[in-house]
Amino acid sequence: MALNNHEDARLVQQETAVGAGIQILLLALLGTATGLGPAGWVTGLAFAIATWALLSRALHRARLRSFGAANRVTLSRTVLVGGVTALVADSFDSAPPVPLLVGLTAVALFLDCVDGKVARRTGTSTALGARFDMEVDAFLILVLSVYVSTSLGPWVLLIGGMRYAFVAAARVLPWMNTPLPPRMARKTVAALQGVCLLVAASGLLPLVANLGVVLLALGLLVWSFGRDVLWLWRTERARTAAAAEAGAVREVSVTQPVAATVAASVAASVTAPAGEPVEAMLGAAQAV
Question: Which among 122, 152, 182 is the end of a domain?
Answer without folding.
Answer: 152
